[in-house]
Amino acid sequence: MKHDHLPACCGDDGEQPRTGLSRRRLLRGTVSASGALAVGAVIGLPGIARAAPAIYNPFAGYPITGSWQDHLNRGSLGGIDFAMDVGTNLPACGAGTIQNIPNNGTGGHTVTIQHADGYRSQYLHLSQFLLANGTAVGAGAIVGRSGGAAGAPGSGSSTGPHVHWHMINPSGVRINPLTYVNQNPGGGGLPKTSTEQDGIPGTIFYQRMQNWLRITSGYTGPIDGAPGVRTYAALQQAMRGYGYTGPLDGVPGANTWMAVQRLASGWGYTGPIDGVMGPNSWRGFARFLNQDRWN
């Protein structure tokens, strides 16, 4: 479903009082909702420079209906609005700890991701919270569902379905997340999928697949790690180069997966081309998807 017809408008989107984690906390690793492990490092220790948090744009497949400047022009502290259907999964833009804020002023239901070094990311106008306060998540974990329909519970002042995203720096100043991602390219890409090791595809695997298809095969949907008809139709289009000759109907079958196995055979897969995906097929495909160019 295309999203460019969906309106999005909000007022001075709310911001909760600052809460934080100890800057001496050792983030050894956090498990996402998909079961992926996000490995961290020693943070905030005296005399040790703190690296920028690894943040990426999880909403790259959605149209922007309210820019940072648009928000400033109408008196908001700033943010970016991405149009999407109510109930869309919202992936974490980076690892951190969850704080849910129900009915957060004009921002409505708000989820905060407290990153390890004091930065925070906030998503506003949610229709549903999914995780308990204090839950540790990795990048790509689904932290809530979008809302924004006028007058609906959790929408705040929103007049159309969308999610509002902004970041807050350690000094408490709201900042543009897209500017942050552009200025920190080392942390701006999608995380690597652990499917290369365990042979089990999950949210991050499918996010990387969607981003590859966005770059190469005309995919225009969300980078949410929840593949549907549009994702698989783009996959079938990409597999034209690997012997797939069937319809672009978004319903993958044996012929689609045989083509994927042919691709995977260039990345370490040595099994049969039988259209039955197993751990070794997924590992080979994941090695392909873990290339930096698909970040």
How would you describe this structure to a colleague?
This protein is of the alpha+beta class. It is about 20% helix and about 15% strand. Strands 3, 4, 6, 7, 8, 10, 12 and 13 form an eight-stranded antiparallel sheet that branches. A hairpin with a 5-residue loop joins strand 1 (about 30) and strand 2 (about 35-40). The longest helix is centred in the last third of the chain and has 14 residues, at about 205-215. The chain is elongated, with a radius of gyration of 20 Å. The model is unreliable at about 1-50 (pLDDT under 50).
Average pLDDT score: 82
Q: Which consecutive residue ranges, at least 5 long each, have pLDDT under 50? A: 1-50
Q: How far is the N terminus from the C terminus?
A: 24 Å
**What general outline do the C-alpha atoms trace?**
elongated
Query: What is the H/E string?
Result: EEEHEEEEEEEEEEHHHHHH
Number of strands: 13
Give a short account of the largest sheet. 8 strands, antiparallel
Beta-strand percentage range: 15-25%
Q: Which percent range fits the helix content?
A: 10-25%
Count of DSSP-assigned helices: 7
Over the alpha carbons, how many angstroms does the gyration radius reach? 20 Å
Task: Tell me the structural class.
Answer: alpha+beta
In short:
With 295 residues, this protein is of the alpha+beta class. It has helices at 68-73, 177-183, 195-198, 203-216, 229-238, 254-264, 279-289, and strands spanning 30-31, 37-38, 64-66, 80-83, 89-91, 96-101, 110-114, 120-124, 126-129, 136-137, 142-146, 162-168, 174-175.
